[in-house]
Design goal:
2 domains; elongated; eight-stranded antiparallel beta sheet; 4 helices; alpha+beta; single chain
Length: about 220
């Protein structure tokens, strides 16, 4: 009997050790995975990572024209003419790209001559986007030439001395003209009103004709 109790105790101890080892291994693996994920995230360089709710104004160049928009009473308005009804969804779609732009590569400030920006097409950018944040911070994002060897485009931002490389063009998200961003008026109701009036007049005429026929 004592032998059986001893064996039972040994089995319980071994079971506790095995279970403890299992959970210990799981905890260790989770810790390693979390560390690797943190290191990977830390190694990512973002050209832009803005909180869209912080953007209160922005402007961009389109065909040598600057289109500027700002938030007024939580609604986007065209700065040059606030009477224009702007399509809010179109605006949100445009600035959505600024929430997360992960750079493919980066040229550190000490790896290029500041006088050689023309070599990257950044002395006279092909596209400029200026964003104003709720704290008053203004950041200018500029797009330069394409590196035909690697297939990426050069970018800079006014608050950073580095040159960023990204595989897409930023200006592709900002191609809408003010006409395309203006909400179209619903003319369906006004167009049907004359038809309804004509039908009513026709019905009234038929009724009058029927009365006249009856009286005769």
């Amino acid at each position: 009997m004592k032998k059986q109790q001893k064996q039972f105790i040994i089995i319980c101890v071994l079971l506790v050790v095995v279970i403890g080892g299992y959970f210990g291994a799981v905890a260790y693996n989770n810790a390693v995975a979390a560390k690797e994920a943190a290191e990977e995230e830390a190694s990512i360089v973002y050209y832009a990572q803005l909180d869209l709710d912080d953007i209160v104004a922005f402007s961009y160049t389109l065909d040598d024209e600057v289109l500027a928009f700002e938030l007024v009473d939580d609604e986007w308005v065209y700065t040059d003419d606030t009477s224009i009804d702007i399509d809010e969804d179109e605006i949100e779609d445009m600035i959505d790209v600024m929430e997360d732009i992960e750079a493919t590569d980066v040229v550190e400030a000490d790896e290029y001559d500041s006088d050689s920006l023309a070599d990257f097409g950044l002395e006279e950018p092909v596209f400029t986007l200026t964003v104003t944040l709720s704290d008053g911070t203004e950041i200018e994002f500029t797009e330069g030439d394409k590196n035909t060897v690697v297939g990426y485009y050069y970018y800079m931002r006014s608050d950073d001395d580095r040159i960023f490389l990204w595989g897409s063009t930023l200006d592709a998200s900002f191609t809408s003209t003010i006409d395309e961003l203006t909400v179209e008026e619903d003319t369906e109701d006004t167009e049907t009103e004359p038809e309804e009036t004509e039908e009513a007049d026709a019905t009234e005429a038929d009724a009058t004709e029927a009365v006249d026929t009856t009286e005769e």
